[in-house]
Amino acid sequence: MSDQAAIDRGMKAQMQALRDALSAGKPRLGWKIGINDPKMLARLELDAPVIGWLAGDRALRSGDVYTARPGTRVALEAEVAIRVGGGGAIAGTAPALELVNYSLPADSFEGILAHDVFHDAVVLGRETLPVPIVEDTWPHVTCNGTEVAQRDPSFAVLQPAPMIRHVAATLARYGECLETGDWVILGTLIRPIPVHPGDRFVADFGPLGRVAVTIGG
User: Which of 20, 38, 60, 120 could form a disulfide bond with 101, CB atoms 3.0-4.6 angstroms apart?
Assistant: First the structure.
């Protein structure tokens, strides 16, 4: 059951962590959509997905090496990324991979929100002009050349324009704002895949292109 007071406490803690990171000189990058599984939203009695912030100092380009921090339990998700233009327009799209850290505290929903909905890093592929985000079989994800995942229909394909409005409204509630140039990743389209040192993942997003990452030790 959702508890708005607990959600507010979690989100306020999350936004304070963002402000602290920016004050410490870490670069701003953007936002993530968390929970795009309609059944999970219903169980939590949430009307819409939650949001988190993207760690600018943990942003990678396609083909880079991601190094997991000692003692963490990390999984990979495949998502569509959009870049926000002036006036909330969609300036571009890109394939993306998110690395989520399930070692972060998860004893309460408030804690999950406060710890940024498990976010650890994001890998952004080549940006292209905005293209329609449609129901399809992509992304197809391979690990070391073997397909390990493709689009899971249990996850909603979230459309950029309403999600930009949702992120902007959520941020306003907690004293922040969406800015031109921010990236927003739109929620996973696959079941999270545990990662291990030496793994090389490639996700093919069809018309959006490909994005890749290697897991370092």
Answer: 120
